[in-house]
Amino acid sequence: xxxxxxxxxxxxxxxxxxxxxxxxxxxxxxxxxxxxxxxxxxxxxxxxxxxxxxxxxxxxxxxxxxxxxxxxxxxxxxxxxxxxxxxxxxxxxxxxxxxxxxxxxxxxxxxxxxxxxxxxxxxxxxxxxxxxxxxxxxxxxxxxxxxxxxxxxxxxxxxxxxxxxxxxxxxxxxxxxxxxxxxxxxxxxxxxxxxxxxxxxxxxxxxxxxxxxxxxxxxxxxxxxxxxxxxxxxxxxxxxxxxxxxxxxxxxxxxxxxxxxxxxxxxxxxxxxxxxxxxxxxxxxxxxxxxxxxxxxxxxxxxxxxxxxxxxxxxxxxxxxxxxxxxxxxxxxxxxxxxxxxxxxxxxxxxxxxxxxxxxxxxxxxxxxxxxxxxxxxxxxxxxxxxxxxxxxxxxxxxxxxxxxxxxxxxxxxxxxxx
Length: 419
Ligand SMILES: [Zn+2]
Hints:
- The protein is an alpha/beta fold.
- The chain folds into two domains: about 180 residues, Elastase, domain 1 (Roll), CATH 3.10.170.10; about 200 residues, no CATH class.
- Helices cover about 40% and strands about 10% of the residues.
- The chain has eleven helices and eight strands.
- The longest helix is centred in the middle third of the chain and has 26 residues.
- The site of zinc ion (ZN) has 5 residues, from helix 2 and helix 3.
- The site of zinc ion has 5 residues, from helix 2 and helix 3.
């Protein structure tokens, strides 16, 4: 039994290197998916004349609309004779629906692999299945109770449906995983870092998932020759990556920037995401070194040259040579580092309690996971990266303004039934 084929744009299709969709297999056995696409865990709909997004009351006075959608829908995407969806061509509502479903299934496959089991929906008590809804009038994407709803970005002539945006959808699946695995805190016990953690985890889910596309890995390696140090803190070359997720993750923000308080949870998430990205890069280089593909001198040299103008040319030359000798080994090492991160994060999240969750809890759980799974192999580098972000040294100040309507975590969409 083989899986089901979908065509997916690994990155928003307006980035040149990725303007062709890549064919992927998801775990659903070929022939098992219904029109929609739909299966036992979720179903895709493209509603007609849906007045408002889920979870948000149009005028604020009535109950917020919740799934399921009972109104009219556009024709669903149908599987071909063998049960696949990759025959659909971009430019149709059916392609959008299949693209949305295919990504959600693809990302769930990856993370269920890291968790070693099925990830239940947070809404499982009230909804058998999650509704994947396309609503172009919404300029956002939300993961809520019983639904993932994606809109479109529209400005003048520029129209980009989020159903075609891997990063946006994978990010929303990330929120869904955290709602399910970490939960929602008691309102009195919700502190700012919980919201920052949520955004960070969603971005990491998107980043690690995107590294499951051959084309993304190849592009990253060919454009850097494996010199991810250049994306690492202190020496980053901002323009080096045209990968949106890497741009978000490769940041230099430290937690001390929020000692006086915070406003947007996305900003507050940056120190934590940055720490994990740098840990990922360090693990990658550690693996390269252990496999003898780069020499230990490279790391030492990197430290020595850190703030010198020679840094970039010297380091890049070393990596150009090393990569030319072992292109395949570099790819294996990158995939290995990716899977270490995915496994560690999945294990870390399961240990967290949503009440009073702060970044120190996350860092400590991650270090414990490393101690248990790998005898502390990455303890020192992980600790150093948390430390460099002031995690453990600085307390986050108060919330200075309420979360705004763009917030991915504001209460209206995390609304859950009281019973
Ligand atoms: Zn978000």
